[in-house]
Amino acid sequence: CASFRPPCPIYSCSICGHVTLPGGPFMFVRRVATGLLSRSLCSPSVRFQHTRHPSRMILKDVVSTLKDMAPLHLAEKWDNVGLLVEPSDSATREVKKVFLTNDLTEAVLDEAIAAHSDLILSYHPPIFAPIKSLTNSSAKQRIIVKAIENRVAIYSPHTAFDSVEEGVNDWIIQGLSGPSKATIKPLQPHTPALSATHKVTVFVPEDAADKVRDAMAAAGAGIIGNYTLCSFSSAGTGTFKGNDKSNPVVGSKGVLERAPEVRMEMVCPSSKLAEVSSAIHRTHPYETPAWEVHALAGVPSSSVGQGRIAKFEDKITLAELVNRVKSLFQLDRVRVAVPDKYLLDGRPQLDQFNVGSVASCAGAGSTVLQGVSADVYVTGEMRHHEVLEATASGHAVVLCDHSNTERGFLRVFKTRLEGRTEGALQVEVSKCDQDPLMII
């Protein structure tokens, strides 16, 4: 703020409306408008950040925030993510409490209802396989029915949580890296879907270029972001020689002709290729237009995607890595497999196995980890023969059980969601949600 008017012992900012009571540099500051208070009556170096008052949020506001935090396009194609259950009064009903769980069981649902929750964020989608009826015949169906009866919405981010930057997989790999300096990247980088999947290139006489471009654009080509009629043209010389059956617009049949032409390129979604083809043939002056279509590929991300791999500057022992795993996931015991040469009387010699790289994936990560060049694989679960194959190839494997590799992130997300909504939501993490498998 640039100026103050001190009309009385209560000082106020003439621009943003901040007020302060006397006594000390600032005894009390109240937000009136958005901005930064950067000048103090007693110290020009004092800076204050406005904080919002809790505001009323309805379901669509909360869902929009969740999508911003973990965009659903990052989820795997096979997944079922987003808003799965929506009460009929969601357009007007305020969401005050969000309840976080890794798995939505009947016990967790009862806990959420008892806590007066308006929205349950279940990491794993409770609706995955198609449901043909809603009866009391299965736990999954009873959960959905009871949630609807109690007007509780259900949202699932699942693999969008895994893929997003600073999501589940980043939380895991950062915990495994600990104080070690490491280079981290996704194992399966996310490749964004393209709105324009192809590029159409047409060769057209200079005086007909605008007409053809306009027709292609009207058919759906040449859209990039907020812009239409996007194209690139370069001048050149076209050659052609018509046979006896030809009817050339330029020159004569049987004669090699050279004509000034424009190479014009426009992007186009696959759904519009047929219409663009018709537009070219309808407006191009040549008897047989020369044109071609090229498929475009998205550029993989360097920061989002499934799984993570960390390469350490300085190696650590497998014993140290296992301790980091236990600390991160708050486990007393984990399952470890090592190559035969690191076994002594059937016991793994963790101090003898040096780790320069570790690959991790939340949940069941075998398909993501398979064939990855890393000293150690860390995930929730792998099949027996997948573990044998990994150790035979020189890798160590650390298994923690499926949801143990995911659940701890909810505590992190709770803090983030509270901060993002600036106090508008109460966020609670389930106390009875736990992995169904226990080591006794």
Rg is 31 Å
Q: How many strands in all?
A: 23
Order of strands across the widest beta sheet? Answer: 11-16-20-21-22-17
Structural class: alpha+beta
Estimate the helix proportion, in percent. 10-25%
The rounded distance between the terminal residues' Cα atoms is 62 Å
Q: What portion of the residues fall into strands of 2 or more residues?
A: 25-35%
Report a brief summary of the structure.
This protein is an alpha+beta fold and 440 residues long. Helix content is 24%, strand content 27%. α6 (209-218) runs antiparallel to α7 (273-283).
Describe the structure.
With 440 residues, the chain is an alpha+beta fold. It contains eleven helices and 23 strands. A hairpin with an 8-residue loop joins strand 3 and strand 4. Helix 5 crosses helix 8 (318-329) and helix 6 runs antiparallel to helix 7. The protein is extended, with a radius of gyration of 31 Å. The model is unreliable at 1-54 (pLDDT under 50).
